[in-house]
Amino acid sequence: MDRRSGSLPMESSNRDRLNGVMSNDTALVLGATGKTGRRVAARLRMHRVPVRAASRSSRTPFDWSDPTTWDPALRGVAAVYMVAPGTPGPAHEFVARAESAGVKRVVLLSGRGADTWGDTTFGLEMRDAESAVRSSALEWTVLRPNNFAQNFSEELWYAPVLAGELALPADGVCEPFIDIEDVADAAAAVLTQPGQHAGKIYELSGPRAITFSEAAELISLAAQIPVDYRSISPSEYTEVLVREGLTEQDAHHIAEMFVMMQRGVLADPTDGVTTVLGRPARTFEDYVLRSAATGVWRR
What we know:
alpha/beta; disordered N terminus
């Protein structure tokens, strides 16, 4: 929410451009119950864009592992907000079906610096999805955000923060965490501005890189709870994630992200948010203050 007025967090110029745009077109939002999907869908509705929200649990069912759900979701759709499937492969067939269904635009959520990740096993599904949309005849745009600030308050690192110890293989790693609200704003802007972002790849980050230790300290100060950071090895982190219920494969996948991050390829802030939205990216401190005020870290 906008700190000053409580209104939808977009610059007035973007609101003016979005108001009424695509009012007769339907946007399919995949992963509509997920962290980005539900936020993107809400923004589109606020701007009177017809939304077809799709996920395994939505009224419009969509499952990457069940291709019979794809065509009904795509029928009559002009634009798609696409979150990469969990494995490489399905994206190519899905994009082909989208073209056949008459879809015009696709906005893909990928990961920061996807083409700099090298031979790591991390993000194979995102790179495969990028290949699918970038080689298509659709008007495509790729959004590549850094790690979400909301990972500390939704899912990934939420439980460790509440437990008071953030143990990660991130000793000295700097990350310009991006506020997921900025990602959703960018996705909504791209989806509702046909032609302006065609063939573009936007690297999205927060305005300043901080260490995970600094992130823990800021949360601790704002929420008035002890949150210590402890450095562990990638193999130790994999074991922790497996104990928490992840599969060995998924745990290794997340640990590999930190191995890749150690190379510093994601550490420099970008101006992607400003390019798309015409305003600076939200700071991590702003995210922490807003989140602390909701009581999300209250024990």
